[in-house]
Amino acid sequence: MALKRSIYLGSLIKEIYENYEMLSRWTPEFTAKELLIIIAMRENRNYTVSEIAKATGFPMSTTSFLLEKLTKKKSLSRRRAQNDRRIVSLKLTKKGRNALDEYNAIFEKISRHMLETLSEDETSDFLGSLKKIVGSLK
User: Fold this and answer.
1) Number of domains observed in the structure of the chain
2) How many Å apart are CA 134 and CA 48, to the nearest integer?
3) Residue 29 pLDDT
């Protein structure tokens, strides 16, 4: 029985992920991984490459590759630190902030659509269970 539930959960997670991938179709200039980086940089401040890698869970090489792509798309700016040229400071540009705003609006619309299929009690139970699951993953 536990194996069946595990397989079912796996299929639901896969379906959610595929729908997340679908979000990149509404912001076609960015891949899903690029959007994850933009989302990780949502606070309007400077970031280091290692901070972004930690926030996204991507390896440093993948993070560096994606950051280079986002720089070429003019969605983020890079600046080397004055006192230590090895440190690169990254920040979203206006174009990157606009992409984040667009993503947030789309995500809000999709979330509202998904949750309106549930009653208030079901929504409360669902969000509480999801919070518990996410907490166990940390």
Assistant:
1) 1
2) 26
3) 82
